């Protein structure tokens, strides 16, 4: 599909913290994109990095609008600040990115072309998500998401991209193109979320506001998956505290998410991961105590 977007204004937004090499690779891949004659501006929130990230960005990418966080923003807070700054200038499109995402050549073109296809179909205003792969292995890591079943309203599986756009329910924020019309209806990322769930919540809120979420064809870039570290040997209370932390399932943020999207049984869904983790950990401790007895 051939298209021109002369006069179109795009804002790329991201938040960064102490990953200077990955951040610079991300920015290089972004600036190498064919913008189809559109104007591309970039907004980066540095959340008080100590590895020279803001200095390197200012030196190597002087056109980037660099905003300073206080070290307590985390992903959702930093993205909210960057997105909010861009929203004030009323762009045609907003490109969400993780700072450890490296775009393939032509990725931005594919996102824009997918959005144009959806417009020509007279679809509702639509977010277009992009799929990423694990560097080296090619295993899919982030992208569009669908619920597994109605009985599991909070379990969203990664959708494998095809050769045509696919409608999904929500998305990871690693690569996501948000048109002005969607942003006008949904607004910014909810401040109830600091590290997790803000992107899932945004996609679901977009659907509730009469918009839709689609997955672009193919894989658009690389981004390593971030699994939680195993801490099975830590005391039970230490592991539970980790689960309750901002980087996992902070109780207040998880309550907001479950109350919105799990239906009338949301208190049970809110409680269940804490109960499951606690029971698993207690079972592991019991097995570890019995093992010396069996050896004797």
Summarize the structure.
This protein has 296 residues and is α/β, with parallel strands linked by helices.
Beta-strand segment tally: 13
Our count of domains comes out at 2
**Helical coverage, percent range:** 25-40%
Helix count equals: 9
The class by helix and strand makeup works out as alpha/beta
Classify the beta-strand content into a percent band: 15-25%
CATH topology of the largest domain: Spore Coat Polysaccharide Biosynthesis Protein SpsA, Chain A
What is the CATH C-level name of the largest domain? Alpha Beta
Mean pLDDT: 90
SSE ordering: EHEHEHEEHEEEEEEEHHEHHH
Amino- and carboxy-terminal Cα gap? 72 Å
CATH architect. name of the largest domain: Alpha-Beta Complex
* Biggest sheet record: 10 strands, mixed
Name the shape in a single word: globular
Radius of gyration: 21 Å
Uncertain segments of ≥5 residues (pLDDT<50)? none
Explain what you see.
- The chain has 296 residues and is α/β, with parallel strands linked by helices.
- Helices cover 39% and strands 24% of the residues.
- It is built from 9 helices and 13 strands.
- Strand 6 (126-133) and strand 7 (140-142) form a beta hairpin.
- Helix 1 packs parallel to helix 2, helix 7 packs antiparallel against helix 9 and helix 8 (251-261) crosses helix 9.
- The model has no long low-confidence stretch (mean pLDDT 90).
């Amino acid at each position: 599909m051939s298209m021109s977007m002369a006069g179109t204004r795009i804002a790329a937004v991201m938040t960064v913290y102490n990953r200077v090499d990955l951040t610079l690779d991300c920015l290089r891949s972004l600036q190498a994109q064919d913008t189809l004659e559109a104007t591309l501006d970039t907004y980066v929130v540095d959340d008080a990095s100590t590895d020279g990230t803001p200095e390197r960005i200012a030196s190597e990418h002087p056109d980037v609008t660099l905003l300073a966080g206080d070290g307590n923003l985390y992903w959702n807070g930093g993205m909210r600040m960057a997105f909010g700054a861009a929203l004030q200038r009323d762009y045609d499109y907003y490109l969400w990115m993780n700072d450890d995402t490296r775009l393939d050549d032509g990725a931005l073109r594919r996102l824009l072309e997918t959005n144009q296809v959806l417009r020509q179909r007279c679809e509702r205003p639509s977010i277009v998500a992009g799929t990423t792969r694990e560097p080296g292995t090619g295993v899919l890591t982030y992208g569009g998401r669908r619920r597994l079943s109605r009985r599991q309203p909070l379990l969203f599986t990664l959708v494998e991209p095809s050769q045509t756009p696919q409608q999904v329910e929500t998305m990871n924020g690693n690569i996501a193109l948000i048109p002005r019309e969607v942003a006008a209806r949904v607004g910014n990322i909810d401040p109830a979320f600091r590290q997790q769930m803000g992107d899932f919540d945004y996609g679901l809120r977009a659907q509730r506001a009469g918009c839709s979420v689609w997955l672009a064809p193919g894989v658009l870039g690389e981004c390593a998956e971030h699994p939680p570290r195993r801490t099975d040997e830590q005391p039970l209370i230490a592991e539970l505290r980790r689960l309750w932390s901002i980087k996992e399932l902070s109780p207040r943020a998880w309550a907001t998410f479950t109350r919105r999207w799990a239906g009338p049984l949301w208190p049970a869904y809110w409680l269940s991961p804490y109960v499951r983790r606690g029971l698993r950990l207690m079972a592991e401790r019991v097995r570890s105590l019995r093992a010396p007895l069996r050896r004797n």
